[in-house]
Amino acid sequence: MFPDLIVKPLGLKELNKILPSLPKDRKFLSGGTDLVVRANADIENSQCWIDISGLKELRYIKENAKTVLIGSGVKVSDFEDSSIIKKHLPALLSALPQFASPSLRNMATLGGNCANASPSADLACALVSEKADIVLYLKGKKRKMPLKDFFLGLRKTALKKDELIWGFEIPKINHKGVYMKLASRSSFAISKIGLAISADINKEKVEYLSIALASVAPKIITAPKTRAFLKNKKINSEILDEAALIIQKEVSPITDIRSDGEYRRAMSGVLLKKGLKQILVKF
Ligand SMILES: Cc1cc2nc3c(=O)[nH]c(=O)nc-3n(C[C@H](O)[C@H](O)[C@H](O)COP(=O)(O)OP(=O)(O)OC[C@H]3O[C@@H](n4cnc5c(N)ncnc54)[C@H](O)[C@@H]3O)c2cc1C
Question: Taking the mean position of all CA atoms in its chain, how far away is CA 89?
Fold first, then answer.
């Protein structure tokens, strides 16, 4: 169901001013690619939407000495031309062409991908492997947490009422990265499984590694046991086989309309091996 009221503040000051006067049952609207679909399906039925797509404060990609800073209102297509993303965030860059379609990428935002808290969110998964922190904003105050801890469960996040995702802070770590997605089509499809790897491999030895997975648990997850096993090891086929068995035990996939649980489990090992091999070629 669509709301009775949609308001569009043109700045943060205006948002803070009008918030108390709005119906209590309210939601933020950014690109609308999740919210409108849910309203059409009658799953979404809040009374008021606050259209935040006009908040210029949330649309930035910048960097300082140690960190890349991204606003929650950045559209997926904005990343495609960013030299900062190309230079520092290879796993996120790798996820972009696998996200939906060009028309969707012109609408969908990074903030919406995370706030929606779908276990299949491609960009959220890539960002978790990039070790992103998420910055949240409520009534003039900001707080920060690791993005992996922001996801509490299926469509559940740490967001409080009226709290806005302000943006993301990602450390500049020397690494290569890859995002791999299996889906029923090569575009316009939600994943059966997604796997992001950020790694620094020196003479085949894993010096830095971060792994995140989509669509294999109720939320985006990391694979700490697999990571600990691979850290400081030299990559060879036996080590890769062992790592694949470990990651298969770390996932808890279900069978649903998109895929079979056991297939997803098997593919977590296959994609891990494939991704690490791809990263080795890049060094
Ligand atoms: C055809 C189709 C294909 C798709 N393909 C993919 C795909 O390949 N991969 C993928 O990951 N997703 C896919 N999606 C899902 C969707 O496009 C993404 O999740 C998108 O990033 C959502 O962003 P949005 O700006 O459109 O969010 P919206 O729909 O505007 O909002 C989604 C939710 O987030 C909340 N929200 C939005 N911004 C903020 C904010 N700054 N602070 C707090 N809350 C906020 C809203 O209140 C709402 O609950 C697809 C959707 C469609 C319709």
Answer: 13
The stretch 93-103 carries a mean pLDDT of: 95
Q: Is 166 in the pocket of ligand 1 (CB under 6 A)?
A: no
Rounded to the nearest angstrom, the distance between the alpha carbon of 225 and the centre of ligand 1 is: 30
Instruction: Indicate whether residue 29 lines ligand 1 (CB < 6 A).
Output: yes
Q: What is the pLDDT of residues 148-204, one digit of tens each?
A: 999 999 999 999 999 999 999 999 999 999 999 999 887 778 899 999 999 999 999
Residue where a domain stops, chosen among 171, 201, 232: 171
CB within 8 Å of 159: residues ≥ 6 apart: 115, 136, 150, 165
Quick one: 64 and 140 in the same domain?
A: yes
Please name the amino acid found at residue 74: V
CA distance 142 to 20: 19
Which range marks the domain in which residue 227 is found? 176-282
Q: How far is the CA of 163 from the centre of ligand 1 (A)?
A: 16
Structure confidence at residue 167 (pLDDT):
98
Question: Which residue's alpha carbon is at the smallest distance from atom 4 of ligand 1?
Answer: 100
Is the full-model pTM beyond 0.90?
A: yes
30 CA: nearest ligand 1 atom: 30
